[in-house]
Structures are given as C-alpha cells and as structure tokens.
Write a structure and sequence with these properties.
The structure holds 2 protein chains of 2 kinds. By secondary structure, chain A is α/β, with parallel strands linked by helices. By secondary structure, chain B is α+β, with helices and mostly antiparallel strands. In chain B, the strands form 3 sheets. Chain B has a 5-stranded antiparallel beta sheet with strand order 1-2-4-5-3, sandwiched between helices. In chain B, strands 6-7-9-10-8 form a 5-stranded antiparallel beta sheet, with helices on both faces. In chain B, strands 11-12 form a two-stranded antiparallel sheet. In chain B, helix 11 packs parallel to helix 16. The chains are: A alpha/beta, B alpha+beta. Chains A and B meet through strand 2 of A and helix 12 of B.
Chain lengths: 386, 537
C-alpha cells in the first residue's frame, strides 16, 4: 500500500512538472531580436501606421561576431497592430526592452502624439525612459534608412548624441514619461527634440538640433538650435554650452567663447502697476574658453565691457525668443503658467481658462548677471611679439 | 621512508587491536561509565584461559601462542654472568625502541649479580636493576597482551609468576610540519601530526595552565581509538560539554580512522551541507578556540582536530586575521564574505537576467551578451550547469591526481575546455567568465566548498525556472535554513543576527584586540575576556 502511494505521488509530480515547466516568460536572449529604435510614420494614402524598426543583428565571421543592424518595416491599423505585423518579416521575436529611440514624423505629430505614446507607455516591454524625437524629414523612416553608416545601430548613436547634448544645449532629451507628465500638467506645453538629416560629402548623417513645440498633443511649430539654448535658460535647465560674442548682432567684440559652468534662473510673477509681469533673473557662471585675439580681456575694463555686452546680447536673444513664441505660436513652453499656479494660486484659478490669451500678451522682463570667473588653463592672451 | 614505516606499523597496530582491546596503563576517564556495556570485553574472554606460570618457558610459549602467525613478535632470552637471573623480553618489532630495550633492560640485568638468590623475586629487578621511569608489575595475561600491542616490552623472569611491563614505545611518527592546506604568511608554522600525544603537547605548550583539561575516552568497537577531549575548565560551558559526552557515548561504530567519522556522528543537523563542527590542523587555532570557551576533540591517528560549537562566521575567520594588521584582515574578511555570496549567486543571477529579465541588463551589455550567444546551440542553464560540472570535475581531478600530471590537466582544462569550446561556439564566452568567477571565489573559502557547490546548484535550478523570483526564493530558503541551525545549542548565525557593535567586532570585520573585550556569546560561561580566566567560579 505504501509503495502504491509513493508511486502515485511520484507519478503526479512527474505529470505536474511537464505542464508547469512551461515558464511564463522564459526566453533566451539569443532568441530575441533587440529593437534599438523605431521610426513611426503614417501612410497618407491609406492612413495606416508605418513602423520602421531597427534591430540589432549579428553576423558570425570567423572567430568573432560583428554587430550589425537591420531594418524591418510593417504597416498596421494601430501602432501595436503594426508592431505585431513586423513578426512577418522579422527573423526572431522582437524585444522592445532596449528600444531607446522613438522617432515620430512631423505630419503624424501635427495630428496627435498621443496615438504613439500610449502604446509605448502601456506595453510592459517598452521603457518609459525611451526618448522621443520629431523628424523634420518627409518621413521619419528616412532617419533610419538614409544614413549609410554601416555597422552598429544608428539608434544607439542617436541616443548617445542626445545624451551628450547637455554640453551643447541645442536640443534636449525628453523621455516619454516626462512628455506624459508635461502633457498632463497645467500651464506648460510640451516640447520635443528635433532630428533631421544632413549631408556630408554626399553621405547622409542625422543631426539633432532644435525643438518642436506642441499645443496640447499637437505639433504647432519649431524653434532652432540656438533658440533652444535660450529656452533652456528660461526653463532653468541649462547645464552647459557656450555663449559666443557673435550671437549678439550688435556686439563689436572679437571672437570670444564663454563656456557655461553653472546657471540659475529665477522666474517670478509680479504685479507692477496692476499689470502681470514675469520677472526672469538669470545668474550664470562662465569661463573664457576661447579668446580669438591678442587683446587681454582679463583686464578689468575690458572684462567689464565683455560682461556687459554678453549680458545684453543674452537678454536680447531671450526676449526675442519669448516674443517669437508669443506671437507665432501662442504656446506657453516656458512654464510661466505653472509658475503662476504655484506662486499665485488664486490668480491662476480665475485666469486658467484664458491663459492662452494672457500668455500672448504677457510682459516679460529679463535680467542676466554673468560672472566670468575663470579663463581655463592660462590667464594670458596669446601675445604677438614685434 | 619514515612514512612507509609508519604506515606498516599503523596497519599492524590496528590488526592487534582487532584481537585485543588494549588497555595497558592508559587511564581512561569518562564522565559516564561505559565499561558495563563495552562490547570489547567479549574479545578479552578469548584469552582468559591463559594464566602465568612459574616457568619462563611456559610463559613465553603462551605469548607466542596468542600471537601465532605474527612474525613481528620478537623474543629474546638472556641471563646474567652467574646465571642467577634468567630472563626473557618480548616486544613487537617496530613498535618498541630496540635501543632502549638493550640499554635499559638487557644491559643492567646481564651485568648484575644479585647479592643473594632472589628466586623469582621480580620486585628486585623492577626497583633495583631496570632503568625505566615507567615500569609496572602484572599477573594478568590480558594486560601483557595490551602492553605488547602498543609497543611496550614485557619482561619474564624464571620462577616468577608475574611479569614486568616496561614502557619502550618507540614507533615512528611524522615530524611536525606546517599543514599543507592551512598555510599562513605570518604565524606559527606548526601543525598537528597523527600522534595524539604529540598533538596534546603542542596545545599544552600554548596554554600553560592547569586549567587546561585533557580527558580521554575510547571509541570504536574494534579500533579502540583513543580520543581526547580538551577544554579550559573555567570558561567552558558545562552544558555543551555534557552534551558532547552524551553524544560521544551514544556512538556505536566499528572503527574510527579519521576525525570525519566522529564529526558526522556527533554533529547537529547531519543532513545540512553546512558544517556544524569545525576542524583544523593547526595548534594555534585550537588554542585560540579554547580561549573562546570552545571544546576541541583530538583523535589518535589523525592530524585533524574537531572544534565545537562551530558557527557560520567561522568559515570566514582565518587564524592569520588575528596575526596581521586589523585593517588588512578586515578587508580580507569582507572579501571572503563577498566571495561566498558571489560564488553562490552569480551563475543564477546571470541565468535569470539572460533568460528572464533582459530589460535589467544595460543595453550595451545586453547587446554584447546577445552577440556572444549568437549561434550557441544550448540554453543558458545547460551551459551554466555543464561548465560548472566540468569545473568541479577538474577540481576533483586536480585534488586526487599525482602532482606530475598537473600540467596536462591545466592545458586540457584551460585551453581545450575554455578557449576551444568558446571558439567552436559550443558555449558562449560570458558563461565561461561567470563560471570562472564563481569557481575562483568558491575556492577562497575551501572549508565551505561542499555547501557552496550545493547552494549554487540549487540557486541555479531555482533561477532557471522562476528567474530572479527563483533566486529570491532560494536566498530566502537559505536564510531560513541557516538561522534555524544550531551547533550544540548555539545559534549558527551567532553575531550575524543583529548589527550591534559587539557583534560586528569579530564577524564582518576584525576589530583591534583592545576592543574585543568579550568572547562570543553563549559559547563560554564567562564572556569577559580579560583577567577572569584563572579560576572557576
């Protein structure tokens, strides 16, 4: 009897093991195609989504393995439909956990960006830390298809360049979760970095520069790379980059580059003569990184002049950007509304519904304080002997 | 040469013990009286028919009859100049020292002329002739047999119905050397040998106090192995001591050849892969453990001494930790603990990440792992288990094989299995790195080898089924097991359960000596280290 019992118990264990061993998501890493990024278009003819995914592929060559990329395209009625349709042409199951780049075409973004980001934020494989960019090319897929750099996946390169933009400040990284947060908050509009193609020696390369401006979920326009820098100044998001004397149209200084080390912006809504004014105070620490002259700008008088000129030009440029955005797009990408909402909640409650109109005519004062506190490796300018 | 001789003698010795339980003059002290139920008595009954007689010839004949078919038994008859003392000595070649017999027994007797006719008065020889500090008179044949087998010499005198047993034990032992598998850079270089009495003297020399107690008991129905229990009387926990005696007395075994026999029979949680009894070959370690209130069990015929109670952190404590700078020894100890964790968990975490949680690997690493695994025919778990098995095979081969084949093994191991297998794309290179890391870190704590192999494999199986959940379940199971263990009533994870300063001092780090004011809790009766170790309270 005991023997029978133990026999049945072991039989049950064996029978149970077989169905239970099929694990819920056991998958070997080499049975997956790692998607590095995807470009999303809409086919104008049949209004279907067209997805162009770049997957990482490998080729066995002798001893080693070389890293390649491969493009897979599919169409679908929805984004996810297109994603699943890719299986038809993909060698292995697509894996989206390492997809870092989502490029959305301009025309699709002008309709709505929500159609794209919902799947990305909902799916359990895709990451909400992935970044989203707007393509200025005719189709977003061009960004992945046209550059003829062979070898490693472009999307990883794009992600790297975008990450190092904090030393340039002509575009900035917007992760999908941040985009969703901004979409949901009052008094600030979304912005996304812009990617386009450029030609060097008849070869195409991608270029990340500028910012796309959204009204709610719809694209309304672009600002260029230089303007993006001033936007970052206002948003207090600047981490690096240069201030160059030539940027100020009316500055009669030689070529000087100042590197931004640290910058702090204070935006304060204030009432002056019963009129709402946004006061922007920018305090920036810079260092002389390049001195294209033999004049010694470290002398006090010249330094003062340089400081005043740079301050003036930065103030002018920021003012220009703000009025451009106010007049052309009427979209509060600077987050002034958000600031009022936290500083003057009563005012916000009464004016929130008409904020778009108020923003268009909002008075802004900008004051910049530049502190030139170093001159890199040498305290001299290059001397010219007689 | 010495070793060969020793081995022969050892085999002889155990052979004689088969015939007779040797009692001789060894004092046996046990807390509980075991003689009543001693099964060895039945062997002794066999010799009860032999009785000593007045005739020298008959006595010799009897002994020869008992030791029939034994050619090592040596018997020499001699007499003094005027033939008034007619004697014979009987001893076993190799066990007794021939020179001592010649100089201290035969020479004095042959040159002696007794003042009057002594006629079988053996007391005269014992007290006035023989030069020995350990001589005994006996009438019992069984005593004579037991004395002969351990290497003592028996002297018969014509007309005497008694015999003298003279201690001439002179069998060869290995010299005191540094143990091969417990080397230190700085510290004493002595190691225990196979001779119990030498080992006891090595301990005694480190602790010069009458507080140090050595108690003998005998174990093994046929081997009659002498076992010595050693402790410091004033600090030992009497409950642990009593428990040890009761466990030792309940042992019923044929023979005890090495300490491993006792270890398995005495330990707590015998089915756990973790050791609940410590072992070492170094007298300095034993002295330090005794000073912490622990008990040492020495066994005749083996250089490995058991210490108890043994707690988990002792795996990571090395004697050298206490001899070198405390910063350096703390770093070493942290490294050992880290190695243990790496060794048991790295293969399973790798398998979990690669087969379940690809999103947790940084993108570029994921890509290079995927590249390395391109075209590999086996699932990751098979790769991992296979390579780990191969490593264990290499390790075991390396331990057992003659040392001159070592080069062939390293070529086959490193080149064929490592490099060629990767190049032929049988296995991927990351798994080779993972297995190598796990293997090297596993070798850092050789004492925990068995436990590491078992736990690592269990973790691997868990992670191959459930991914990181499996690793977490495995780790939880391991923790439950470790915290449940006891060694002679002392919690196995002693000192690792809380993060109090006193607990950290000699666990994760090794604090400077002036901070270590207390002995480990529960082990000693008196936990204050300084000045209290002289008198029993």
């Amino acid at each position: 009897m005991r023997k029978m019992k133990s026999f049945f118990v072991s039989l049950m264990i064996v029978i149970l093991i077989i169905p239970l061993s099929s694990c819920w998501n056991y998958r070997e890493i080499n049975d997956l195609s790692i998607v590095s990024g995807v470009a999303i278009d809409r086919n104008q003819a049949n209004t279907m989504y067209q997805l162009t995914a770049e997957i990482v592929s490998f080729s066995l060559a002798g001893k080693g393995v070389t890293l390649n990329s491969r493009i897979i395209q599919a169409e679908g009625d929805t984004i996810f439909d297109a994603v699943r349709n890719m299986i038809k042409t993909a060698p292995k199951r697509l894996y989206w956990g390492h997809s870092q780049i989502f490029i959305v075409s301009e025309s699709l973004a002008r309709d709505s960006v929500i159609e794209v980001i919902d799947w990305v934020s909902r799916d359990q494989e895709t990451r909400s830390e992935a970044v989203i960019l707007i393509s200025k090319e005719a189709t977003a897929s061009d960004i992945l298809l046209k550059p003829n750099i062979s070898g490693s996946p472009i999307c990883f390169d794009i992600y790297q360049s975008l990450s190092s933009q904090n030393n340039l400040s002509k575009a900035y990284k917007v992760e999908i979760y941040k985009l969703i947060n901004t979409l949901g908050s009052e008094g600030i509009s979304c912005t996304l970095p812009v990617i386009s193609l450029t030609t060097v020696d008849s070869k195409s390369f991608y270029e990340i520069s500028g910012t796309a401006i959204f009204k709610h979920d719809k694209l309304v326009g672009f600002i260029d790379g230089a303007e993006t820098k001033y936007l970052l100044f206002v948003n207090d998001n600047i981490e690096g980059g240069l201030l160059v004397t030539k940027e100020g149209a009316n500055i009669s200084q030689p070529n000087i580059s100042l590197e931004i080390y640290e910058s702090k912006t204070k935006v304060k809504p204030n009432f002056v003569d019963d009129e709402l004014i946004m006061q922007i105070e920018i305090k920036t620490k810079v260092g002389i990184a390049e001195l294209g002259t033999s004049e010694n700008f470290l002398e006090e008088a010249k330094m003062k002049k340089l400081k005043a000129d740079i301050e003036k030009s930065l103030e002018g440029n920021i003012n220009k950007l703000i009025s451009k955005v106010q007049d052309d797009y009427g979209v509060d990408i600077f987050g002034f509304g958000k600031k009022i909402r936290s500083d003057m909640p009563d005012l916000w409650r009464s004016e929130a519904s008409s904020w778009d109109e108020i923003f268009k005519n909002l008075n802004v004062t900008v004051s910049v304080d530049i502190d030139i506190n170093s001159s890199a490796f040498t305290s001299q300018s290059i001397k010219i002997g007689d | 040469m010495d070793e060969q001789l020793y081995l022969n003698i050892y085999i002889k010795l155990t052979h004689y013990i088969y015939i007779s339980k040797r009692m001789g003059d060894m004092t046996v002290t046990t807390k509980n009286d075991t003689n009543a139920s001693n099964p060895n008595i039945s062997f002794n009954d066999k010799y009860s028919k032999y009785k000593l007689s007045h005739s020298l010839e008959i006595n010799i004949q009897q002994i020869k009859e008992i030791f029939y078919k034994d050619n090592t038994l040596t018997e020499t008859e001699f007499m003094n100049q005027d033939s008034t003392l007619k004697c014979a000595v009987i001893f076993i070649e190799g066990m007794a020292d021939r020179e001592v017999i010649s100089k201290s027994i035969i020479a004095p007797i042959t040159r002696n002329n007794p003042p009057k006719d002594i006629d079988g008065n053996i007391d005269y020889l014992m007290h006035q002739v023989i030069n020995s500090n350990d001589t005994k008179k006996t009438k019992e044949v069984i005593d004579i047999i037991n004395a002969i087998v351990v290497g003592k010499t028996v002297l018969f005198l014509e007309h005497a119905k008694e015999a003298l047993i003279i201690n001439t034990i002179g069998w060869k032992t290995r010299s005191i050397e540094e143990p091969e598998n417990e080397k230190v850079l700085r510290g004493p270089r002595e190691g225990f040998t196979e001779a119990l009495i030498t080992n006891l003297s090595l301990i005694r020399r480190k602790l010069l106090t009458p507080d140090l107690k050595f108690e003998y008991i005998e174990l093994g129905m046929r081997s009659g192995t002498k076992i010595c229990i050693c402790y410091l009387d004033s600090i030992v926990n009497p409950k642990i001591l009593d428990e040890l005696y009761s466990r030792l007395n309940s042992i019923n075994i044929d023979g005890v050849i090495a300490s491993g026999y006792i270890q398995e029979l005495v330990r707590d949680a015998p089915l756990s892969p973790f050791k609940t009894l410590g072992s070492t070959e170094r007298p300095d370690i034993i002295a330090a453990k005794l000073l912490e209130g622990r008990i040492a069990v020495l066994i005749e015929g083996t250089p490995v001494v058991i210490t108890l109670p043994h707690i988990f952190i002792e795996y990571f404590q090395a004697n050298e930790d206490y001899y070198i700078n405390f910063y350096f020894s703390s770093i070493n100890r942290i490294l050992r603990i880290l190695s243990f964790i790496i060794s048991i968990s790295v293969p399973s975490i790798y398998v979990a990440l690669v087969t379940f949680h690809q999103e947790l690997i940084p993108t570029h690493l994921a890509v290079s792992i995927a590249a390395a695994k391109e075209g590999i025919p086996f699932p990751t778990i098979v790769e991992a288990l296979g390579l780990l098995t191969i490593f264990e095979i290499l390790r075991e081969t390396g331990t057992r094989m003659p040392s001159y084949i070592g080069q062939a093994l390293s070529i086959v191991g490193a080149l064929v299995i490592g490099q060629a297998a990767v190049e032929a794309r049988f296995v991927s290179s990351p798994i080779v790195i993972i297995v190598a890391l796990s293997a090297i870190t596993g070798l850092m704590i050789p004492r925990a080898k068995g436990a590491v192999i078992l736990v690592r494999t269990l973790f691997l199986l868990c992670s191959s089924v459930l991914g990181l959940y499996g690793v977490v379940f495995g780790a939880a199971g391991l923790m439950l097991h470790l915290f449940e263990l006891r060694s002679f009533g002392v919690p196995y994870m002693l000192g690792l359960m809380t993060i109090q300063a006193q607990d950290i001092k000699d666990t994760i780090i090794r604090a400077p000596w002036w901070y270590m004011e207390y002995r480990p809790k529960f082990i000693a009766t008196d936990s204050k280290r300084k000045g209290t170790a002289t008198k029993k309270q």
